[in-house]
Amino acid sequence: MSVADEEWTQRGIDVNTPSVARLYDYYLGGKDNFPSDRLAAEEILSVVPEVRIAARENRAFLGRAVRFLAEEGIEQFLDIGTGLPTQGNVHEVAQEIRPDARVAYIDNDPIVLAHARALLRGIKGEVTVASGDLRQPEEILQTPEVRKHLDFSKPVAVLLVAIMHFITEADDPRRIVTTLRDALPSGSYLVLSHGTHDNRTEAAKKGTKVYERANSPLVLRSRTEIRELFDGFELVNPGLVWLPEWRPDDFPLYDDPSQALIVCGVGRKP
Ligand SMILES: C[S@@+](CC[C@H](N)C(=O)[O-])C[C@H]1O[C@@H](n2cnc3c(N)ncnc32)[C@H](O)[C@@H]1O
């Protein structure tokens, strides 16, 4: 174990169990991962090499969606499952268009929180970070940092980007989204991306198997099931589509958009 890994262990970070946040960091070419993560990630990439591009497409979608919402006048963002800080973080994208945009970052992975807090040190008060578990959405909504930071009498965009596929059926994904939706005023938005097994079913099974030893299992769903998560929201154009198909502003990274493995959409609460 390297000195750095030992330091993390002393801070209570489990470096031996692959973490979904660190796996994603590895796909994106980040450095905040440990040997257990790299081994699992390489195993996944050997069966589903598109995962690396899917991760990049997912970040690109997140950026386009936040830009779209800021242009629509949204000034408040609740980003649940924010991930390790990388390029194009939500506050950076939103504040390019709305310098006063407020962002609350939530994650349940201690290493994500440690890095996010370090990144945000020295940033002015429009951004906050707090620990929270999406499986308890009521608690997230009541978190003092969230309540202090966001005004739920005005529209808020809730970002559930590449996180709902870590929620099992036992944790009732539809209830989670409904709880968040009911706390939002009219004119609020849901941004969601989610892995699907509709294509590449065999490879998806093998990839899912590797995630069984990670800190969260991977639960891929059908497009129909993912569409149901937007219940009570009106999908904005172009609806629920593969990542590169959502309001593209650049050339796609590949010809077949289904290779992005993840579908996405943005819904508006009427
Ligand atoms: C694949 S990353 C996505 C990061 C970012 N949203 C993006 O799309 O670029 C998933 C993130 O969700 C977090 N996560 C997974 N399950 C969670 C839960 N139940 N509650 C809060 N965060 C969770 C992980 O720690 C990780 O940071």
UniProtKB/TrEMBL annotation:
SUPFAM superfamilies (alphabetical): S-adenosyl-L-methionine-dependent methyltransferases
Gene3D superfamilies (UniProt xref): Vaccinia Virus protein VP39
A Pfam family it matches: Methyltransf_19
InterPro entries for this protein: SAM-dependent_MTases_sf, SAM_dep_MeTrfase_SAV2177_type
Protein name: SAM-dependent methyltransferase
Organismal lineage: Bacteria, Bacillati, Actinomycetota, Actinomycetes, Streptosporangiales
